[in-house]
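ok, trying the design again with the full structure, not the truncated one.
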């Protein structure tokens, strides 16, 4: 990323993280502490709010100056536990969320500050709206408003449409394509979160009650890797907290209903149904924590074609809503299983080895010959990034590396000594170049009213871009051959 001092405000807003702007050292107390302790700590720290945690150290509530003056001072003698008087539930922002998202949420709810937590819900600090707005101008606020519409289907459709303009703006600001993909992914995850929040509230009001057990939404594929392009389809599932078998009927009915509402509305706002039925409506992708672990062990043992294909789809998952620690727990289990199962990885290699690159003899591009509408074009996903993504993922599974982004995986493999510096540079450069070409073509196709896809015509590239693309595809092909040789030479 370019030096922040040289970046445009728009770029900083959409590529910097909340943790870069939050104020640390908040007043944090357990719910068992007394009101007297709370007031003393707030006064000593000269803070206008305090964050209250549960016994697991996760944020459970908040107490502000207004709470003290309007409610607590009138009814407490100082000995009462804070947990009895705090405001709860409290909306938070993740430290690794983008700065624009914090601004959007605070403007949406009319708040001046918001607690910041890590992915497990532990409080880290507070973000103030004034601090965030210090790097934003009127144009940026308009863009933020465009991607934070009301939680209606029309509003969420407008967010999807506004993504293209935002991607174009960032592209023109020379933001690297993988960073734009990360922003697009974040907006898409926000749409998932907002739909789930809306439907959970609507179901409660309609008599379904609250969610019967805690759960986490997981997103797989490019959304799990943080590498969405403009119009990804759905790849989602649920992890549910364990519950007694006798309670399965009503609990599963609740989550079937939630999944059907979510997937229906995702399709309506611009996320097409998954053709392979990789969605939470399918019981394969809707399981308890224990059932997920059992299924992963089964995939590792059976090693059937179906099991390999399902696990290949699954391995890029990330938690996107709810109890995301469940997804992190499952990631640790997957990493451990895969690293210890050489036979399973061998079968997985046979599956991913089918992905080739669009490069023929003498460095000539291999173009699409099957579909008339794409004759002469290169599918830069299926014959470009797919081989890179899948082979890098396979190596990370073998090495026990839990990272999910492709660039993060390449860097981690270099750190583990699997890639030397040249290999890291070539593969990183290949990913940057191909994703840039793909993103530019998708923006161009959208503006021209064409169907957005993954095909690029060589004539649309400059000679320099063609040369770099040839080098990129060669680097990916070299990786493919290396992985094939290593896996063919190991005993599985």
């Amino acid at each position: 990323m370019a030096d922040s001092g040289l970046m445009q405000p728009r770029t900083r807003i959409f590529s910097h993280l909340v943790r870069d702007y939050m104020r640390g050292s908040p007043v944090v107390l357990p719910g068992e502490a007394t009101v007297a302790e709370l007031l003393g700590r707030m006064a000593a720290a000269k803070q206008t709010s305090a964050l209250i945690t549960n016994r697991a150290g996760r944020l459970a509530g908040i107490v502000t100056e207004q709470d003290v003056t309007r409610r607590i001072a009138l009814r407490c003698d100082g000995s009462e536990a804070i947990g009895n008087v705090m405001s709860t539930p409290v909306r938070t922002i993740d430290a690794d969320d983008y700065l624009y998202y914090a601004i959007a949420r605070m403007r949406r709810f009319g708040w001046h500050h918001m607690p910041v937590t890590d992915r497990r819900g532990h409080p880290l600090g507070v973000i103030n709206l004034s601090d965030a707005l210090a790097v934003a101008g009127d144009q940026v606020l308009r863009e933020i408003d465009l991607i934070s519409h009301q939680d209606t289907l029309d509003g969420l459709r407008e967010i999807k449409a506004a993504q293209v303009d935002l991607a174009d703006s960032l592209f023109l600001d020379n933001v690297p394509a993988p960073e734009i993909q990360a922003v697009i992914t974040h907006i898409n995850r926000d749409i998932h979160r907002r739909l789930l929040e809306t439907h959970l509230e609507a179901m409660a009001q309609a008599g379904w009650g609250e969610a019967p057990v805690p759960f986490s939404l997981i997103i797989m594929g490019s959304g799990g890797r943080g590498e969405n392009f403009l119009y990804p389809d759905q790849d989602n599932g649920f992890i549910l907290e364990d519950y007694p078998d006798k309670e399965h009927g009503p609990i599963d009915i609740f989550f079937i209903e939630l999944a059907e509402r979510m997937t229906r509305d995702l399709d309506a706002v611009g996320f097409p149904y998954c053709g392979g039925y990789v969605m939470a409506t399918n019981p394969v992708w809707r399981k308890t924590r224990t059932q997920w672990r059992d299924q992963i062990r089964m995939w590792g043992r059976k090693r059937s074609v179906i099991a390999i294909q399902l696990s290949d789809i699954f391995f890029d998952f990330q938690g996107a809503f709810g109890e995301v620690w469940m997804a992190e727990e499952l990631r640790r289990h997957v990493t451990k299983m895969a690293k210890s199962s050489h036979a399973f990885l061998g079968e997985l290699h046979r599956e991913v080895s089918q992905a080739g690159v669009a490069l023929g003899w003498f460095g000539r591009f291999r173009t699409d010959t099957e579909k008339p509408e794409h004759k002469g074009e290169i599918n830069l996903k299926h014959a470009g990034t797919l081989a890179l993504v899948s082979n890098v993922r396979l190596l990370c599974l073998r090495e026990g590396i839990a990272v999910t982004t492709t660039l993060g995986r390449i860097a981690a493999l270099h750190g583990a000594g699997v890639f030397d510096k040249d290999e890291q540079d070539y593969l990183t450069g290949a990913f940057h170049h191909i994703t840039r070409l793909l993103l530019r073509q998708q923006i161009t196709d959208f503006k021209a009213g064409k169907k957005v896809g993954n095909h690029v015509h060589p004539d649309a590239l400059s000679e320099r871009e063609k040369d770099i693309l040839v080098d990129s595809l060669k680097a990916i092909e070299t990786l493919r051959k290396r992985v094939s040789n290593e896996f063919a030479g190991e005993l599985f």
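Keeping the full-length input from now on. The longest helix spans residues 177-205.
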